[in-house]
Design goal:
Layout (H helix, E strand, L loop, with lengths): L13 H21 L10 H18 L9 H22 L6 H4 L2 H25 L2 E3 L3 E4 L2 E2 L3 E14 L2 E17 L2 E7 L3 E4 L8 E2 L3 H11 L12 E4 L4 E5 L2 E6 L2 E6 L2 E6 L2 E6 L9 E5 L5 E5 L2 E5 L4 E5 L2 E6 L2 E5 L4 E5 L2 E6 L2 E6 L2 E6 L2 E6 L2 E6 L1 H23 L6 H16 L4
Antiparallel strand pairs: 1-4, 2-4, 2-8, 3-4, 4-5, 5-6, 5-7, 7-15, 9-10, 10-11, 11-12, 12-13, 13-14, 15-16, 16-17, 17-18, 18-19, 19-20, 20-21, 21-22, 22-23, 23-24, 24-25, 25-26
Helix pairs in contact: 1-2, 2-3, 3-5, 7-8
């Protein structure tokens, strides 16, 4: 298990927004100090320098923990970065009107930066041990949880899970069922424990006695690298000037002037002021919910209006009025103005004012009051409103019949589908003769 279930837009936190504002204020103060002569601010020279140094340290410290949480090494590296930028400012300041009493501290500030960086590197070894997912040896009563369109019912014990010092979810031991409302209807599934619920919401009740053996088992399951030594382990590096996270489809790399974010939903590369984005690489919001069987194939993930359900037999992806159902080589797609059904060489698509049916050597399409047919190597065109309405109605009936059986797990009935298409074809031939 990696950090992917709890990545969120950390930079929306007030602390990080304040840090960004302070960077802007620092830049403005640097410009004021640079043009202190024309602006008649020379008498405030020392005060402006003190303010700039204080702002540098302020925004560096407020930025700690933006990606991996606040750690001791992160604080030390923030101080090291603050000292480094201060040394650079003081060093070049001596040619820009800074007093000797101030720029003489440039060497001292640089020395602090080097020593603090070394201390941060050494401390990072201890912080890395704490950047683990840990199931705590505490248990609380569980009697269900309501997440709007997703509900958990049942009873058992809920064990809190932490990443470092942060609560990120729960592991449930007991009889649990999940119920989710989708555009295809209500999906209900009985889950096999242990069940992971990755959410920051509190879903447990009163404290109860834990099962030490279950805690050991749960920790092994949420940290699979403990079970499989050859499994690639998620890497986390936070050296202040260098930040790297890699694991389970999520990558984040930050170097001076370069930042790369890659998630399953997109990529973004920042080189100085240039931003190149593909897709939507923003991290899942705080409201993200994931329910997962740790020993089986079920997983449900909800992010705002988006819902994804994955089982060994099928998958459902819903986003508002749009939904996609997949089972093997069969799929059903529903939207506000269209529905499509696919299975191998069979496809039926019904949209606003048009439809297309394809099965074996038969293709029937209807659009703008016309019907086109291709069968047995021959093509026909019918310009008749009754024939057009007939194709639209029959296509909708066929999709509704087959969709119901597909969702129930029976799959597409090709024999019945072929018969219905042949019946439609025979009716259409009456308009050609």
């Amino acid at each position: 298990m990696s950090l992917s279930f709890r990545w969120k837009v950390e930079n929306e936190s007030p602390r990080f927004r304040i840090a960004e504002y302070l960077k802007g204020i620092t830049a403005l103060m640097l410009i004021l100090w640079l043009f202190k002569g024309p602006l008649k601010l020379k008498e405030y020279n020392d005060y402006i320098v003190y303010a700039i140094v204080a702002l540098i340290f302020a925004f560096e410290l407020l930025s700690v923990g933006k990606w991996f949480g606040v750690t001791a090494s992160g604080i030390i590296f923030a101080l090291a970065k603050g000292s480094f930028w201060t040394s650079v400012f003081l060093f070049f300041g001596k040619w820009l009107g800074m007093t000797k009493e101030l720029y003489s501290y440039a060497g001292t500030a640089f020395a602090y930066a080097v020593v603090l960086a070394i201390a941060g590197i050494l401390m990072a070894r201890f912080d890395e041990r704490r950047l683990d997912i840990k199931v705590e040896k505490k248990a609380y009563e569980f009697s269900g949880a309501n997440f709007g369109d997703v509900k958990l019912s049942g009873s058992g014990k809920a064990y809190p899970v932490k990443f470092g010092r942060k609560n990120i979810g729960w592991i449930i031991d007991g009889d649990v069922s999940v119920e989710a409302e989708t555009p295809l209807g209500r999906i209900t599934k009985k889950l096999l424990p242990p069940v992971a619920v990755w959410t920051e919401e509190r879903i447990a009740g009163k404290k109860t006695s834990p099962d030490p053996n279950f805690v050991v088992k749960a920790n092994d399951l949420v940290n699979p690298d403990r079970l499989y030594r050859n499994r690639k382990k998620d890497s986390v590096i936070d050296l202040g000037f260098l930040k790297v996270y890699e694991g389970n489809g999520f990558e984040y790399v930050k170097l001076p002037f370069i930042e790369v974010i890659e998630t399953p939903s997109g990529e973004e590369v920042k080189v100085g002021p240039i931003h190149i984005r593909e897709g939507n690489p923003s991290m899942p919001p705080k409201e993200m919910l994931t329910i997962k069987e740790l020993t089986n194939g079920f997983q449900l993930t909800k992010i705002d209006q988006r819902l994804r359900i994955q089982t060994d037999e099928y998958s459902i992806e819903a986003d508002g009025d749009r939904v996609l159902y997949r089972s093997g080589n069969e799929s059903l797609s529903l939207g506000r103005d269209h529905v499509s059904l696919h299975s191998g060489d069979v496809s039926i698509t019904v949209g606003r004012g048009k439809t297309k049916i394809r099965i074996e050597d038969v293709v029937i399409s209807a659009h703008e009051g016309k019907v086109r047919i291709r069968v047995g190597g021959k093509s026909y065109t019918i310009e008749n409103k009754d024939a057009y309405r007939l194709v639209m109605e029959k296509a909708k009936e066929i999709v509704e019949e087959q969709s119901a059986e597909l969702i129930e797990g029976l799959g597409i009935d090709r024999t019945r589908l072929s018969r219905r298409v042949r019946e439609l074809l025979d009716e259409l031939m009456n308009y050609i003769r």
